Amino acid sequence: MQTIIGGASAGAPADVIKDTDTAHFMADVIEASRDQPVIVDFWAPWCGPCKQLTPIIEKVVLAAKGKVRLVKMNIDENPELAQQMRIQSIPAVYAFVGGRPVDGFMGALPESQIRQFVDNLLRAGGDDETRQIDEALVQAAEQLKTGDVRMAGGIYTQVLQADPSRTEALGGLAQVYVRMGDLEKAREVLAHAPDEVQNDPHLVQARTAIDLAEKAAGAGETAELEAKLDADPDDHATRMELAMALYADGDAKAAIDQLLTIVRRDRDWNEGAARTQLFEIFEALGPKDPVAQSGRRKLTSILFA
Q1: Phi and psi at residue 105, in whole multiples of 5°?
Q2: Is 29 in the active site?
Q3: What is the pTM of this model?
Q4: Region label for 135, one of left (φ > 0), alpha (ψ between -120 and 50) or beta (otherwise)
Q5: Is the peptide bond before 45 cis (omega within 30 degrees of 0)?
Q6: Residue 127 pLDDT
Q7: Could you tell me which CATH number the domain at 17-126 has?
Q8: CA-to-CA distance for 26 and 37, rounded, in angstroms?
Q9: Cβ–Cβ contacts within 10 Å for residue 82, how many?
Q10: In the CATH scheme, what architecture does the domain 218-303 have?
Q11: What angle do CA 282, 285, 290 make, to 5 degrees?
Q12: Boundaries of every domain in the chain
């Protein structure tokens, strides 16, 4: 398929991470940020959270392969600048673009949030490859929604080759394999995710989709299940199985409608199994999916009628 993301980035330059002081702050941060985003990590040797945070920032910055720089400043050795920057507690992290601070945070954050911080900074700094990746992810999601799973898979693969840390692409590629019926391959894709991002929403959504696909695979034929329901409309077990069969056929809306019917007739049936199944489908579809949004509204209306 056509390459939609620029060629592989060069390795990170040797000075992508450096220490600075008050005398060199203007050159290392202000002037340097006119060419590319610069993150400043204010720390001190006695600060325990600093020792936890700094290696994480270094890891994420190195993974960006020179698209962003990290400058570290010891506030004990440079108290005047820390006062000018109004640093009241550490760790304190500021991001500079175009010679001015554009974002920042205080305290230790997990790696997933640091990556998001850097991604946002690269967008603010006008990084071309980051923009291309963002556009590619939107295109892949559209292809997946319209059913062109092979095209979506190709785009997600390109994104991961350019930036392996993009959990949206990792989860999306797993979803592609779910749609293709290869659940083993979908699990294999997710197994490559580092432990610290296992709770990322994109990966949780993909895992839920895998679980649902496994359940749906055991459902019967829709025609037979519909015939059983015609004979006994209050057979909730059959209606639940029909919902999963419809979901397996790719008709999430019809599956949701069947589950809503169970909740409407007996919301506590089988310890609220229909509601639980609805939430799993909503999770698998994602918060922005219009079918899921409509289903959530209908469920709320039933529960609070």
Answers
A1: -160, 165
A2: no
A3: 0.61
A4: alpha
A5: no
A6: 60
A7: 3.40.30.10
A8: 14
A9: 20
A10: Alpha Horseshoe (1.25)
A11: 85
A12: 17-126, 129-203, 218-303
CA 276 to chain centroid: 23
130 CB neighbour count, 10 Å cutoff: 22
Of 144, 143, 123, 125, the closest CA to residue 133 belongs to 123
Give the CA count within 13 Å in the CB-facing half-sphere of 21: 4
Sign of the C-alpha dihedral computed for residues 9, 15, 21 and 27 taken in this order: negative
Overall size of the chain counted in residues: 305
Q: What is the pLDDT of residues 54-86, one digit of tens each?
A: 999 999 999 888 889 999 999 999 999 888 888
Q: Report yes or no: 195 and 110 within 8 Å, Cβ to Cβ.
A: no
For the stretch 259-290, pLDDT in tens is: 999 999 999 999 999 999 999 999 998 888 89
C-alpha separations of 67 from 125, 151, 181, 205, 291 in Å = 10, 28, 38, 30, 38
Catalytic residue among 29, 47, 190, 203: 47
Please state which CATH class domain 129-203 belongs to. Answer: mainly alpha
288 is catalytic: no
The two domains 129-203 and 218-303 share their CATH topology (first three levels equal): yes
Residue with tokens 């529960």: 303
User: Which member of 50, 245, 246, 281 is catalytic?
Assistant: 50
